[in-house]
Amino acid sequence: MPKDLAKESNLLSLVESWDLVAEGYTQDLDWAMTPFSLKAIEVANLTPESRVLDIACGPGTLTLKVAPYVRQVDALDFSKEMLSLLINSIKNKNITNIKIHQADAHHLPFKDQQFDAVFSMFGIMVFSDRHQAFSEALRVLKPGAKALIASWEFVESTFLSDLLKLMGASDLACEEKLHSLENVEDFYQEMTIAGFDQVEIQRHTVKLGAVDAKTLWDKMARATVSLAWLRKKIGEEEWQKQSLKALDYLENIFKGQSYVFPATALIGVGTKSS
């Protein structure tokens, strides 16, 4: 494994992190995830009789989209708060073919060879032991079936890392910059080592909706794990001071304008040998 990067402890692998941002994540990041979920569903070649697994399903961005096309979706996450949001959506939409599992994806609660496809949209990329997660995904796939794993592509610099440093949280900036599947070669190698055949890493780019500085900051503050931890650590009074500092920083960059941001994701596609 390259530099043993597939096994690493980080804030993003903690269940409490995702409980903290569950509501904001659904409200502010679902729209960014949806285009890539639809692309993964398209690539999966599903049938009305397919049974699929969504690992680290979160609030159900992919789960809810794929449900109309398959016989059953098993939606798995370790965050109770994320699953509560998904359960509410299922009830509101009167969907009957989704089964919920609160469990650790490093040890999937399924027998071997159960699924016609396994998805993980931006989930496995932050796991503490990706090799174990990939191996488990492979185990529960039927022979000839595909796993479709999404990760964000590497970005040299982000507003988030700059803001965390500005707000006196450089340690959290380092946490955000964890080694993930953002490198195509590492992504390919990790899936191959786990036992997948015909591995292909696809690159997909979409343009997200235009946002101004205030909208961007509000979304980041509600949905970003490192910012949620910072808010909890420093308390509400200090958070409000730091929030004004962060917004001022962004407004100096945006200069009253709104910008459309491109987002690029890598989707790793691997097949279980027959």
User: What's the Cα radius of gyration?
Assistant: 19 Å
Number of strands: 7
Largest sheet: 7 strands, mixed
What top-tier CATH class fits best?
Alpha Beta
| Count of DSSP-assigned helices | 11
**Total tally of structural domains:** 1
Q: Tell me the β content.
A: 15-25%
The percent of residues in helical segments reads 40-55%
Structural description of this entry:
By secondary structure, this protein is an alpha/beta fold. The protein has a single domain, classed as 3-Layer(aba) Sandwich (Rossmann fold), CATH 3.40.50.150. The protein has helices at 15-28, 30-43, 61-66, 80-93, 130-140, 159-166, 170-176, 184-194, 213-223, 225-234, 236-254, and strands at residues 51-55, 72-77, 98-102, 115-121, 141-152, 197-207, 262-271. It has a 7-stranded mixed β-sheet, with helices on both faces. Strand 2, helix 4 and strand 3 form a beta-alpha-beta unit. The radius of gyration is 19 Å and the shape is globular. Mean pLDDT is 88; it is low at 1-9 and 174-178.
What would the keywords be for this entry?
single chain, about 270 residues, alpha/beta, Rossmann fold, seven-stranded mixed sheet, 11 helices, disordered N terminus
Chain-wise SSE layout:
Layout: H1 15-28, H2 30-43, E1 51-55, H3 61-66, E2 72-77, H4 80-93, E3 98-102, E4 115-121, H5 130-140, E5 141-152, H6 159-166, H7 170-176, H8 184-194, E6 197-207, H9 213-223, H10 225-234, H11 236-254, E7 262-271
Helix pairs in contact: 1-4, 1-9, 1-10, 5-8, 6-7, 9-11, 10-11
